[in-house]
Write a structure and sequence with these properties.
Distance between the termini: 74 Å
Shape: rod-shaped
Number of strands: 12
Strand content: 15-25%
Number of domains: 2
Structural class: alpha+beta
Largest sheet: 6 strands, mixed
Number of helices: 6
């Protein structure tokens, strides 16, 4: 009686194309000149020959080529278990086979599970400075199509400042959330409204800085990381020490105000 195709498929499938002992792959990839090479054997746990390894006179002959009496081993470990039958008994080989199949099943389940999502910062994408924003269009361009927002502000000192800061930042985020659906005319009106809020903040002693940072979204079901743009806004008092008021280059020309990025 020969090993059936069904039994052979079950043996290789449940073994995951790996030796039960060393768990190395047992099909070597093809080269540019030759086909794949199979470096494994379908080994009998209980031999059918009286002089064979682990021969058992009571073992049913009709089960000799059954799935339960077969184990997949690389050729090195095939010879090892047949030479060392006192160490590798039939019961031990069956347990090793069972443990290996559980390991293969768990590995496949782990691969099917989506990896945890995380947003990772990339050092070269972190802005060195946040630039001074003076128009609503600059703010709108910054928040448009952002996947998340990193907003911060100096501590308000009155309810009026709470309303002022909260209103500006919320409006900026709201326009960012719907920016993909804005028509050309809508963008003009949105930018104009943001400019008015900027001027109101400046009249009350605040300055707005901002930048974009491209982070990477990893995990989930996607095979490769994808871009995750972040809109950064800071609303600071004009006397905040973090602000570099005026920078002069070698020609004595004023440079745009900037603050360090945190």
């Amino acid at each position: 009686m020969a090993i059936s195709h069904k039994t052979r498929k079950a043996l290789w499938g449940r073994s995951g194309n790996r030796c039960v002992i060393c768990r190395n792959e047992i099909v070597v990839d093809a080269t540019s000149h030759d086909d794949e090479s199979v470096v494994a054997d379908e080994c009998h746990i209980v031999s059918s020959r009286p002089d064979g390894p682990r021969y058992d006179v009571s073992y049913p002959p009709e089960r000799q080529d059954s799935y339960e009496n077969l184990v997949l081993l690389c050729r090195t470990h095939h010879k090892m278990v047949d030479d060392q039958t006192d160490t590798f008994t039939a019961d031990i080989l069956r347990q090793m086979k069972s443990d290996h199949e559980v390991w293969v099943s768990q590995k496949l389940e782990d691969e099917d599970k989506p990896k945890p999502l995380r947003v990772r910062r990339v050092e070269q994408n972190i802005p060195s400075f946040l630039s001074h924003l003076t128009t609503g269009k600059e703010v709108l361009d910054l928040v448009s199509n952002a996947m998340a927002y990193d907003f911060d502000h100096d501590e308000p000192e009155s309810q009026e400042e709470v309303d002022l800061l909260g209103g500006f930042l919320q409006t900026a985020q709201d326009w960012g959330d719907i920016s993909a659906d804005l028509q050309a005319g809508d963008r003009v009106r949105a930018a104009y409204g943001l400019t008015e809020r900027l001027r109101e903040l400046e009249d009350n002693g605040f300055v707005i800085f901002g930048a974009r940072e491209l982070r990477l979204l990893e995990g989930g079901i996607q095979p490769e990381p994808s871009g995750w743009p972040i809109a950064i806004l800071r609303v600071l008092r004009q006397d905040n020490e973090a602000i570099l008021r005026v920078n002069l280059d070698e020609k004595g020309q004023e440079q745009p105000n900037k603050i360090g990025s945190s």
